[in-house]
Design goal:
The chain is mostly beta strands and 148 residues long. It contains 1 helix and 7 strands, in the order αβββββββ.
Length: 148
């Protein structure tokens, strides 16, 4: 394989880092260290059935893949769904979340938490999930769902 046809290597040599990134986006984007990674855009768009929500999250390009928690609360503040994204492969994320309860008309809140769990010192590939973790960044948006 000639050098020009080889897949680009990630900054830390992990070939999985490049799975969903195009060669142009890999080399053009300035990747940030964990303490500088932020949520750039967040949107929530209800589907016409009012039972599903299209979620779009855009985060800054990163050197290390973060963890992301997405939660959806109804107008009364009750959590309706929760999604955990462990080390996303791309910094533009699109997903669909479902309401797990009877729909109520009103303002819903979608909250996103971006964080890096501490690594196990003996095996850096393991992350500790049994201890509290400080957020790197949080962001939320409100949107409305009404009966059709």
């Amino acid at each position: 394989m000639s050098p020009s046809s080889q897949a680009p290597q990630s900054l830390d040599g992990d070939p999985n880092d490049n799975f969903f990134l195009t060669q142009d986006s890999l080399f053009d984007a300035e990747r940030l260290p964990p303490e500088d990674v932020r949520i750039l855009q967040l949107s929530a768009e209800p589907y016409p059935d009012g039972q599903r929500i299209l979620v779009n999250i855009k985060i800054t390009p990163y050197e290390k893949r973060p963890h992301i928690e997405v939660s959806l609360a109804d107008p009364l503040g009750n959590e309706l769904s929760n999604v955990s994204i462990i080390e996303p492969m791309n910094w533009n994320i699109e997903l669909t979340t479902h309401l797990r309860a009877q729909r109520i008309d009103g303002n819903y809140t979608l909250a996103v938490r971006l964080f890096y769990p501490p690594r196990d010192e003996e095996d850096p590939k393991l992350a500790r999930v049994d201890i509290p973790v400080e957020d790197t960044h949080r962001h939320s948006v409100e949107f409305q769902i009404h009966q059709a």
